[in-house]
Amino acid sequence: DPDRKTEVVLLACGSFNPITNMHLRLFELAKDYFHETGKYKVIKGIISPVGDAYKKKGLISANHRVTMAKLATKNSDWVEVDDWESSQSEWLETLKVLRYHHQKLLPPDATNSLEDAVPLTKLGQKRKREPNRHNPIKKKNQSPDIKSVPQVKLLCGSDMLESFGVPNLWKSEDITEIVEKHGLVCISRAGTNVQKFIYESDILWRHKNNIHLVEEWIPNDISSTKIRRALRRGHSIRYLVPDGVRAYIEKNHLYGPESEDRNAGVVLAPLQKYASDSKN
Amino acid sequence: MKSRIPVILLACGSFNPITNMHMRLFEVARDHLHHTGRYQVIEGIVSPVNDNYGKQGLVSARHRIAMAKLALETSDWIRVDPWESKQETWTETVKVLRHHYNESLRLLQCKKEFMKTQRPTETSAGDSLSCQHPVLPELKLLCGADFLQTFKTPNLWKEEDIKEIVEKFGLVCISRAGSNPSQYIKESELLTQFQHNIFLVREWIQNEISATQIRSALCRGLSVKYLLPDPVIAYIAQHNVYTEQSERSNQGHLLQPLRLHSTRGTPLSD
């Protein structure tokens, strides 16, 4: 019964500095993976570029990064760009972005608030068991069982997953909520390192059923870092990024030695935040 | 002022189908040659192999040419040439090189004739200089490192062909992770002799899009978006180019060069 498939939205957070064909491939690979399970239907892909306040070295203005991502997804009928995260004045934890997008998918209900967002699953099943009941009166925090709410899953590469281990980069309660309440889709080349990383983490291991590992069958190393390096050296980036993105970079003279030096010596926002938190 | 040597890059292969990686080879090669300061790459040519090559899964040249054209629509320097695919039978790579080299000379000659008909005031100083001392273009074979390795496959290449390719034309060989082309050169006396004419370029941005895997993905209904240009993907869908059946074509057959060069008598067993 095709209606019983769980709907999934894939959310990719990152610098996208710039967006590359590899980023776009992550979505395609994840979508194919979920469809092949027969249990999920991917209904949307969201690219959420990080805000400038992240302070990563070489990070250029969010305006450009969002525009490039939009150019890149022009020809996609299911992947889109969302600039909510990038338009915040402060850096936002990834979990907050996940919650926000999950919230957006819930049916309109005045009682729902960002903090109360709770993912809901298998509501169709529940409804089937009570065929003659009217819809119950909505109470705060109770699941609206009109239709199931899509799950928002964090789409990433193995580097992001492994960054969970970097001290002060992530809050462990955030990691827990990400894997417990939302889920992770991790695309990697050879699964081994990632599997080992999951094995060595109690939190990840406990929720490994909600961590989907997808093997990338085309080794694809088109990292943004390499793209920026190529540009600084006057090398071609054709066929590594969508043509519209390449043209935009060229026209606006993005990515030179000066842009790479931005935020040099500045502490990354999450590290800044958690280091000062732990001091307090 | 020493002028740069004009270079034309020629890539021969199945292009079954053409992928972003094939086109990257051209870009990487061009960057490399330009950075030597000695060369100016003036053209890139994609030459899809003749149907008669007999490789398993090879679809009609009509499709392979059409797809390459779509892929290169937005390139201002790389083009597809159907000459090889239009020959009556499979043609040795060296012959394809010779053909395109002669073509480039012919074009240069035509240009010179045309320039002569112009009044002197209408030509720029640069043009008249180049007419007096034309720098002949060099035609180089563009390939991956695995291609170099195939020189060792028994009966696949004629020794004299390899010699002509590296001596008279030259190779631009893009290497990917896991291959060691300088090793192959060292292991071959012939290649070592002409190593000055073999440009080894390292591609640091790994992007190993194998056409075989692409075809397999297409058969399984998996996405190949961002690995091939969108128009090529659309073409494949529209014409149903790659199917389980197309994958089986030429199954069990010998490649044409092997067929031609193997000793007469018993064919190679499977």
From TrEMBL, chain A:
- Which family does the similarity line name? Belongs to the eukaryotic NMN adenylyltransferase family.
Q: Name one GO biological process term.
A: NAD+ biosynthetic process
According to the UniProt record, what class of enzyme is this?
A: transferase
| EC number(s) per entry | 2.7.7.1, 2.7.7.18
Q: Where in the cell is it found?
A: Nucleus
Catalysed reaction equations from the record:
nicotinate beta-D-ribonucleotide + ATP + H(+) = deamido-NAD(+) + diphosphate; beta-nicotinamide D-ribonucleotide + ATP + H(+) = diphosphate + NAD(+)
The name this protein carries in UniProt is Nicotinamide-nucleotide adenylyltransferase
Q: Which SUPFAM superfamilies does this UniProt record tie to the protein?
A: Nucleotidylyl transferase
Automatic annotation (TrEMBL), chain B:
Q: Name one GO cellular component term.
A: nucleus
Highest rank taxon of the organism: Eukaryota
Pathway per the UniProt entry: Cofactor biosynthesis; NAD(+) biosynthesis; NAD(+) from nicotinamide D-ribonucleotide: step 1/1; Cofactor biosynthesis; NAD(+) biosynthesis; deamido-NAD(+) from nicotinate D-ribonucleotide: step 1/1
What is the annotated localization of this protein?
Answer: Nucleus
Major subcellular site = nucleus
**A Pfam family:** CTP_transf_like
InterPro entries with a match to the protein in the record: Cyt_trans-like (IPR004821), Euk_NMN_adenylyltrnsfrase (IPR051182), NadD/NMNAT (IPR005248), NMNAT_euk (IPR045094), Rossmann-like_a/b/a_fold (IPR014729)
Needed cofactors, names only, are: Mg(2+); Zn(2+)
| Gene Ontology MF term list | ATP binding; nicotinamide-nucleotide adenylyltransferase activity; nicotinate-nucleotide adenylyltransferase activity
EC numbers listed for it are 2.7.7.1, 2.7.7.18
- Top-level class of the enzyme under EC nomenclature: transferase
Family note: Belongs to the eukaryotic NMN adenylyltransferase family.
* Subunit field text: Homohexamer. Interacts with ADPRT/PARP1.
- What's the name of the protein? Nicotinamide-nucleotide adenylyltransferase
